[in-house]
Structure formats: C-alpha cells, structure tokens
Design brief:
Elements: H1 24-38, H2 44-55, H3 59-66, H4 73-90, H5 113-122, H6 128-142, H7 146-149, E1 152-155, E2 159-161, H8 177-191, E3 199-203, H9 209-220, E4 225-229, H10 238-245, E5 252-257, H11 268-276, E6 287-293, H12 303-306, H13 315-327, E7 331-335, H14 340-353, H15 360-372, H16 379-391
Parallel strand pairs: 1-4, 3-6, 3-7, 4-5, 5-6
Antiparallel strand pairs: 1-2
Helix pairs in contact: 4-6, 5-6, 8-9, 14-15, 14-16
C-alpha cells in the first residue's frame, strides 16, 4: 500500500505500524501493546486502523463537528478516495506472519460503546463507498476521539473525559414522575435542535436532583448529548469553555453545576449571569446550563437584606440583584421531601429490584427507624437503608 496517496487522512502517515520499512517484530510489539492498552481484538492491523480513524482527528471528522453534521459532496468523495487506499486493511486482508496477531484476544476487551458499534457496522461492508459512509455516520452520531468515547467531562484547561462515569438511568430513579417529565421534555427538545431552557433543579437534599441530570446523559448519549461538570471557581472560565464546545456543533452539551449557591460577597455568580444571558458573545446553541441547588434564589439572603434599615439607598435594586440569577433559568423544577408513604415506597421498590419483598409492617418499622437515626426522609436515606439491609443478609 502507498499511504502517501492519502489526502484527508494524512495523519495516518505518522502511524509507524503501517510503515512498510518497519521491522516486523517491532511492529508486532507495538500492535500487541496497543491491543492490550486499547482492548483491540481480531486482526490487529484492521482493528488498530479503525481505532485511529475513529479517534484521531482528520479533515472529515473535524468538519462534521464544526458544521453541525454537514459535509460537502466533494469532501465526501475525497474521503472515499482515502478509504479506497486503506481497503486492504479495513477489509482485514493485511495479515501478520505471527498468526496470533490475526486472531488476537486481549486481556480486557474495549468497552467503548461508540467504537464497538462502529466495528459492528463495518463487519460486512466491503466497498470503499459503504465503509466511508459508515465512518461519516459514526462521526455524525458520536464524534471522534474523546467526544465519542466519553459521556461526561471535567474542565482542566481543556475537556478531560471522565473515565468512570455513573451508569444510572432514569428508570433507576423512583418517584418524582412529574419532575422527570419536565426534565426529559426539555432535554429531548434540546437534543432535537428545538428551543429549550437552562434548568435549575431546586429543593430538598437527597431527592435525586444530581442523579437526574447524570441519568440524562446515559439516556441521550447515542443522540449526541454530553455533560461537562464545572466547579464554582471555574465559572470565570465559562467563555473559554463555551468557545471550546462551539467546536463540536454536531453534539449537545449540558454544563452541569452541582449544589450551587453563593454568598453575597462572592462575585462568581456574575460570570454565570453573563453566560446564561446578557453577555456580549452569545451562548452557543449546542450548550445549556443545568444547575442543582438547595436554595431557590441561589444567592444567600438575610432578613437584613429586606429590612427598611438596609443601608443601600435603593433597597429594591439589591433585592433584584439577589433574585436575578435564578430568574435567568427558564425552567425551575422543584423537588420536595417525600411523604412517609412515598419514602417507604422508594425502599420497597429498591428492594424489589433486588428480588426482596419485605412484609409491609416490617418495612414500615425498619424504614422509619433508619430515617430517625439518619439525615431525614429522602431518596438518599432510602438508598442507604437498602445498602445496609442488603449488606446484613
């Protein structure tokens, strides 16, 4: 093969494994190392080439991201030209003299959902046109590199994938049906490219506000939804973060602020106000902000703030400043502490999923005893009781 003929995938020229002049055993060593590190199996020449095309940026994948899933017909044809050159590898026709590398089984297989789906799509394809279209569809649905691999990210002078993200789903959250309906309705509209609101989830602790947001990402991952969690001190980087997310217009991002509240002396909330609405640069259309808080107005108020003796000349201006941040969230979802009956139903449902059904009276006695010795009646307390009960069996 002459990889020098590649046009939009010329980054593959840096992959020394496909250099015909490379030593056979050096190539075998590198392929084996990558197979173990990346969880690649089968024909390792083919598996590693697919991995590179799926993860390393090229003109096709970056254009699709920047243009919201659109590429020109000419660029598509150039990509097919490159795939034609790579066909012997992509069809598994390049073999190693070391037979084990043609049927390799790694210690731990790759668990990347997007990559494994791409492998399945390519399994029975043989023409350059079909294989090229499969990669293009992959870039549109999942993206490339870390954006395709990870569901959630944190910010550290750039997006950093969260390797061990919670696998919680919406069905795992018991109760709060109305709140889940509001949350999924807004998120579905956002993923579908329709108008949607920034969301504030507010209310009692332990009621599943944070878990609800995390579950959304697992539900809508294959539709292009990703989560970026930032901390309060990082609010000053919001313009930089949004500019980074603007490069991935075929994806939808929730910027997640967990357990958010401010003291009046903290100025970070002004960065958030500006980012949501009112800044010189508009918020990207592929970004929404979801926040959870125990405070309805986010900024701490005191009775002194409402007093007629307040030393600010225009008292209403101070009050408006305090509540203006939460008002910028178009959708505010309230979570209340469950009633006793709801609390016991949460426990019953959790235990039932583990195949355990307690007598109603035993459930009531044990559940309420646990509540009285812990932090009150909520979903978190119910989960802690279930963990304790299962651990003692």
């Amino acid at each position: 093969m002459n990889l020098q003929g590649l046009i939009v995938c010329r980054n593959l020229l840096d992959a020394e494994i496909f250099d015909g002049a490379a030593d056979e055993f050096d190539v075998a060593a590198k392929l084996t190392e990558r197979a173990e590190r990346l969880g690649l199996s089968g024909n390792l020449y083919r598996a590693y080439m697919i991995y590179l095309l799926a993860h390393e940026p090229n003109l096709i994948s970056t254009t699709i991201e920047m243009r919201g899933g659109i590429i020109g017909e000419s660029l598509r044809e150039v990509f097919k030209h490159d795939v034609e050159i790579l066909l012997p590898i992509l069809r598994g026709e390049l073999w190693s003299d070391l037979k084990i590398l043609n049927i390799y089984k790694p210690t731990v297989t790759n668990s990347d959902e997007a990559f494994n789906e791409l492998l399945r799509q390519l399994e029975n394809l043989t023409t350059a046109a079909d294989i090229a279209d499969a990669f293009i569809a992959h870039y549109k649905n999942f993206g490339y590199g870390d954006i395709a691999t990870y569901r959630a990210f944190r910010w550290d002078n750039g997006l950093v994938g969260v390797r061990h993200f919670e696998t919680i789903r919406l069905d795992d959250l018991i109760g709060y049906a109305h709140q889940k309906e509001l949350l999924t309705g807004n998120t579905t509209a956002f993923v579908d490219g329709k108008p949607a609101n920034n969301v504030l989830l507010v209310g009692a602790r332990g009621t599943g506000k944070s878990s609800g947001v995390k579950a959304l990402v697992n539900e809508y991952y294959s539709q292009g939804l990703r989560l970026v969690q930032i901390t309060k001190p990082q609010l000053k980087f919001l313009p930089e973060i949004m500019e980074a997310l603007r490069r991935f217009m075929s994806k939808r991002f929730i910027i997640f602020l967990d357990d958010l509240s401010f003291e009046e002396s903290e100025a970070e909330y002004k960065y958030l106000k500006s980012a949501i609405e009112g800044g010189v640069e508009s918020r990207p259309e592929n970004v929404l902000i979801y926040a959870t808080s125990n405070r309805r107005h986010l900024i701490r108020e005191t009775w002194r703030d409402r007093s007629e003796e307040h030393d600010e000349l225009y008292r209403d201006d101070s009050t408006n400043e305090t509540i203006s941040l939460s008002d910028r969230f178009g959708l505010i979802i309230h979570y209340y502490s469950p009633t006793q009956a709801e609390y016991l139903e949460i426990i019953r449902s959790m235990l039932k999923r583990r195949g355990i059904e307690l007598d109603a009276e035993e459930l009531r006695i044990e559940g309420l005893r646990w509540e009285m010795s812990h932090s009150g009646r909520n979903g978190r307390t119910a989960q802690q009781f279930v963990n304790y009960y299962l651990g003692q069996r």
